């Protein structure tokens, strides 16, 4: 289990509430498989309220990846939808929940964002 | 796209073949069986006794099925066939083909029937190139009861499985039968071609991707329901009746259900290369079709909201609040060789999203959706103010951050040379185009209504109205080309105008950003000889340096563009000018059997006598399909007004009588009637 992944879920648990998940309700389990061992994180979303635990419960949606890949996803260096299309990440269950959860993942670490001329002038 | 290609589809699975039903893909004829932006069959060739077959006729019965009647041998002087071969095919959850061979001879015949099958697994973005160096590995597995063609690159795996009844012999290149047919005997087998996007563990990633029932009967039933639910259009003008019917069926074909919303559909952009979600195309199509097929708008708003940008990503050009441009499912998106996972490089989809939500509520009365999408709508408005104004002067600008695979022009005229100065020079970046400022104005005005009536936030409403008024004033100061008396196509950061006369000014009328006293001049330009060809309004006016009657965005006529221009003219009271444009486009539809193409040539009507189709135009294309519907709305002057539907028709004489029955909306269902009384020769001359 990588540090970034742990940090990501810890932070999610501390946040407790995420307005971008106001419309989401359900349980998402993350399975990180390495050899014979699988780590689990369970996120319970109830209209924005978040609870994170490390139990292997049945869930509406199960997202499976390698621990390495999720470590990259957790810091924005890899992208969930591209990974899903590539087959490096798999999803079973409610696909809409995946899209909703995906939106709260970080963007690319060194993204420039829109270049604004007037900001530059002001500097 | 060759004319001899037959296309059938369901959702984003489609087949493009020759008139024999054969598929032989080349860069020039990009035929094949396609699904999720991947080619699953690039070769599918039927032979009898080693000979190719000749088509007698084909029917594309419905958008999802086709039938080919064939005889052996190549066409020579006449056909004296003792054999008939019928291929019937349909696409749904898989591609199915039924082969029937009839022996008309008085003696038995021995036949070797063979289907050659193969796949290059090209990404949709590769099909017009020679496919030489795929990064993964293509494999073939021959089993006793099926043939498996596959492509693997890491965990990315796409597989075509071919299985036929009648006990064929499978080999690496297809399957074959040796049969004997007695006189008048008939032989029949069914072939099933299954496409799969196999994830680890063998699971298909397309959970609920297909839209409707898949099975032929379910598809038939679904189409009948779709047509029954839409208003009936009865009219004396046969071309209008035909183009409406054609559009309704094509719109059914273009429905697309994204992975995450099983069973709910939105319009994909167009067949064959754009069977996917496009922010701009889907929204504009919904706006065109609201009076006829309102269910599309609800899904479109929801899915675009679900995928709204949430963070910064320079490769995908994602920003918080931005509405997506294009989503793709193929290899190039998966390996991030293309940014479509999804790609956000458009500046108009975001304001248009707000416009559609308001327009949808005005028709449907679906206030619950307005409440549901409040956060996303506010985020879209914030994007307009915070992230799109790259120059800091109150306009929406664009400059791509993905300089390898991003789009240079992020407005609807997105080809590289579409935005220019009057001397033909291309401007630097960032760029701003006029119609997008109109959309932003309209978005603010409409959002103010939503904030006041639904969100209980009058302060926000006041602010939006104030900003809209300021934008209108600023726009009319900075963009008006005084000597030409029109609005500039674009602006550069120094305030320099791209002072060419373009169709974009018609969109400004639609958005309401034009001051009353300037509208008359715009109307005059739009039906004047430089812009209006007799069939429609050109993207760029005759006489401009870059004008070319078959220049993609520099002179061709786009039916979708015209439908919004007509709507805009009507909004400012120029009903006759609107009817003139409507008449021209509907006249043009006759030459395309009612199916308006993406674009046709800007040649003067007197010169060519018929509209010249743009060479590589995509057809059917959603917003061309939606154009006749918006033109009907415009001519009939139907508008939601305080909970009921107002009707104020202004029709050309040639339209005769029109009835539109059962228009759905917050009023239940109502009818609209009209009769053509307008002589438009004066204007069209």
Automatic annotation (TrEMBL), chain A:
Gene3D superfamilies: SCP2 sterol-binding domain. InterPro entries: SCP2_sterol-bd_dom (IPR003033), SCP2_sterol-bd_dom_sf (IPR036527). Residues 12-105 form the SCP2 domain. It holds the Pfam family SCP2. This is Sterol-binding protein.
Automatic annotation (TrEMBL), chain B:
Residues 9-191 form the Putative glycogen debranching enzyme N-terminal domain. It holds the Pfam family GDE_N_bis. It comes from the Bacteria. Residues 349-588 form the Mannosylglycerate hydrolase MGH1-like glycoside hydrolase domain. This is Amylo-alpha-1,6-glucosidase. It comes from Micromonospora echinofusca.
């Amino acid at each position: 289990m990588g540090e970034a992944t742990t940090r990501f879920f810890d932070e999610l648990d501390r946040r407790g509430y995420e307005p971008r998940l106001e419309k989401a309700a359900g349980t998402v389990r993350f399975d990180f498989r390495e050899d014979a061992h699988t780590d689990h994180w369970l996120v319970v979303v109830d209209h924005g309220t978040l609870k994170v635990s490390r139990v292997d419960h049945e869930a509406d949606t199960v997202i499976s990846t390698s621990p390495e890949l999720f470590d990259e996803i957790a810091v924005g260096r890899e992208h969930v939808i591209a990974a899903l299309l590539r087959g490096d990440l798999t999803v079973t269950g409610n696909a809409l929940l995946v899209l909703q959860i995906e939106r709260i993942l970080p963007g690319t670490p060194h993204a420039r964002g829109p270049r604004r001329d007037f900001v530059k002038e002001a500097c | 796209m060759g004319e001899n290609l037959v296309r059938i589809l369901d959702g984003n699975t489609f087949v493009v073949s020759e008139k024999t039903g054969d598929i032989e893909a080349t860069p020039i004829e990009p035929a094949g069986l396609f699904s999720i932006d991947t080619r699953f069959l690039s070769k599918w060739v039927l032979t009898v006794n080693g000979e190719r077959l000749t088509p007698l006729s084909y029917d594309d019965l419905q958008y999802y099925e086709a039938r080919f009647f064939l005889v052996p041998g190549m066409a020579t002087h006449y056909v004296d066939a003792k054999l008939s071969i019928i291929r019937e095919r349909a696409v749904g959850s898989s591609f199915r083909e039924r082969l029937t061979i009839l022996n008309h001879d008085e003696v038995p015949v021995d036949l070797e029937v063979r289907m050659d099958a193969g796949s290059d697994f090209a990404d949709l973005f590769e099909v017009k190139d020679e496919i030489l160096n795929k990064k993964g590995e293509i494999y073939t597995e021959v089993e006793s009861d099926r043939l498996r063609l596959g492509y693997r690159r890491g965990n990315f795996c796409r597989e075509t499985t071919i299985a036929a009844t009648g006990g064929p012999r499978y080999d690496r290149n297809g399957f074959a039968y040796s049969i004997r047919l007695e006189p008048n005997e008939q032989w029949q087998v069914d072939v099933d071609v299954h496409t799969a996007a196999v994830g680890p563990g063998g699971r298909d990633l397309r959970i609920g991707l297909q839209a409707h029932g898949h099975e032929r009967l379910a598809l038939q039933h679904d189409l009948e329901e779709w047509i029954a639910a839409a208003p009936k259009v009865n009219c004396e003008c046969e071309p209008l009746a035909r183009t409406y019917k054609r559009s309704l069926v094509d719109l059914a074909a273009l429905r697309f259900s994204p992975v995450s919303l099983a069973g709910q559909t939105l319009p994909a952009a167009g067949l064959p290369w754009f069977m996917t979600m496009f922010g701009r195309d889907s929204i504009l199509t919904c706006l065109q079709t609201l009076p006829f097929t309102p269910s599309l708008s609800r899904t479109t708003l929801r899915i675009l909201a679900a995928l709204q940008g949430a963070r910064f990503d320079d490769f995908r050009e994602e920003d918080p609040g931005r509405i997506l441009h294009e989503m793709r499912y193929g290899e190039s998106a998966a390996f991030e060789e293309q940014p479509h996972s999804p790609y956000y490089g458009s500046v108009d989809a975001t304001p248009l999203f707000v416009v559609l939500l308001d327009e949808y509520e005005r028709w449907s009365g679906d206030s619950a959706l307005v409440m549901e999408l409040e956060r996303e709508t506010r985020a879209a408005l914030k994007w307009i103010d915070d992230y799109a104004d790259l120059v800091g002067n109150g306009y929406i600008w664009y400059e791509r951050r993905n300089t390898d695979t991003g789009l240079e022009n992020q407005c609807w005229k997105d080809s590289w040379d579409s935005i220019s100065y009057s001397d033909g020079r291309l401007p630097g970046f960032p760029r701003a185009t006029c119609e997008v400022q109109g959309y932003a104005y309209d978005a603010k005005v409409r959002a103010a209504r939503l904030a006041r009536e639904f969100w209980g936030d009058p302060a926000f409403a006041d602010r939006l109205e104030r900003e809209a008024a300021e934008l209108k004033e600023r726009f009319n100061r900075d963009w008006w080309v005084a000597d030409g008396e029109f609005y500039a196509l674009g602006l550069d950061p120094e305030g320099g105008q791209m002072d060419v006369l373009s169709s974009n000014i018609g969109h400004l009328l639609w958005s309401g950003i034009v001051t009353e006293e300037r509208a008359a001049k715009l109307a005059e330009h739009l039906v004047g000889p430089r812009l209006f060809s007799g069939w429609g309004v050109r993207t760029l006016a005759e006489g401009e340096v870059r004008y070319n009657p078959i220049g993609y965005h520099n002179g061709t006529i786009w039916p979708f563009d015209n439908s919004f221009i007509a709507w805009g003219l009507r909004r400012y009271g120029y009903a006759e000018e609107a009817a003139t444009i409507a008449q021209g486009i509907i006249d043009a539809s006759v030459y395309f059997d009612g199916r308006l193409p993406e674009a046709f040539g800007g040649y003067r009507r007197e010169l060519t006598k018929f509209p010249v189709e743009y060479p590589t135009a995509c057809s059917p294309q959603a917003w061309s399909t939606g154009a006749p519907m918006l033109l009907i709305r415009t001519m009939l002057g139907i508008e939601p007004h305080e909970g009921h539907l107002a009707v104020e028709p202004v029709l050309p004489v040639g339209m005769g009588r029109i009835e539109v029955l059962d228009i759905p909306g917050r009023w239940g269902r109502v009818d609209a009637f009209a009769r053509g009384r307008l002589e438009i020769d004066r204007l069209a001359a």
